[in-house]
Task: structure prediction
Amino acid sequence: MHRKASRELVLSRFPALKVKLHSPAGALSGGQQQMLAIGRALMARPDLLLLDEPSLGLAPSIVLDMFNALRQINAQGTSVLLVEQNVAVAMALASHAMWLKKGVSRPRGCQRVARMA
Result:
């Protein structure tokens, strides 16, 4: 995919970035910076997207937008490995889960099982 097409794909996924296209990254809000970071990663067309606490410090409405975008990214074939403390939002996205409790991993399998745990 060409650079222009990749950029358009990212801007369609994160429309809030379109109006900030020519702004320095440091001038963006926290949510916009997170969208920019994910968008830059997507331009490399990864098979796996690794995310560590993407919702940290973001407004609840931005968190929902971000996780909706992650759901779409996953639905289009990119695997997502997510480390997230916001369990409710993460489990709404996850097909499999692994929990850490006092440093010990607890495999939970599919989403339905993890929700009941």
Notes: Helices lie at 3-13, 30-42, 60-75, 87-93, 111-116. The radius of gyration is 15 Å. The chain has a mean pLDDT of 84. The CA atoms of residues 24 and 112 lie 42 Å apart.
